[in-house]
Specification:
The two termini are 29 Å apart. α2 links the parallel β1 and β2. The protein has 5 helices and 4 strands; from the N terminus they run αβαβαβααβ. It folds into 2 domains: 67 residues, Rossmann fold; 57 residues, HUPs (Rossmann fold, 3-Layer(aba) Sandwich), CATH 3.40.50.620. Helices cover 47% and strands 21% of the residues. It is globular, with a radius of gyration of 17 Å.
């Protein structure tokens, strides 16, 4: 869709916020190091996706941000002046969805731009 329109693609990955630790200012060192490793891996994967799109002639830029998922994504959409959100859905249901909610549903409900949800593919 983006190529014929000459549109820029923003690959935005919202990483979970740093966990809160009771009694620790910044959390134990091994937790901080593990979290940093996870964020580095996610950043590398995101950059590889962006490069793969660029290799196919698409204008793409990757962005990794931290924060509450739906709110942070919607803030980035506004900041980047995006015209469309395309996001994947894990397809969770039942108790998990009741307790945690659905990021897709929150984005659909609160977005000021159109949203396209792409369901996850069952790899079983």
């Amino acid at each position: 869709m983006a190529q014929p329109l000459g549109a820029k693609l923003w690959l935005v990955h919202v990483a979970a916020p740093d966990p809160d630790f009771v009694g620790f200012e910044a959390g134990p060192k091994y937790i901080r190091e593990h979290r940093a490793d996870v964020l580095r891996r996610e950043h590398v994967e995101l950059q590889a996706l962006s490069k793969a799109l660029a290799d196919r002639g698409l204008l793409a830029e990757a962005l990794l941000v931290q924060g509450p998922t739906a709110e942070t994504l919607l803030d980035e959409v506004e900041r980047l002046k995006a015209d469309l959100i395309i996001m994947g859905s894990h397809g969770r249901s039942g108790l998990f969805k009741a307790l945690v909610g659905s990021v897709s549903e929150q984005v659909l409900r609160d977005s000021k731009v159109p949203v396209m949800i792409v369901p996850s593919v069952d790899k079983a």
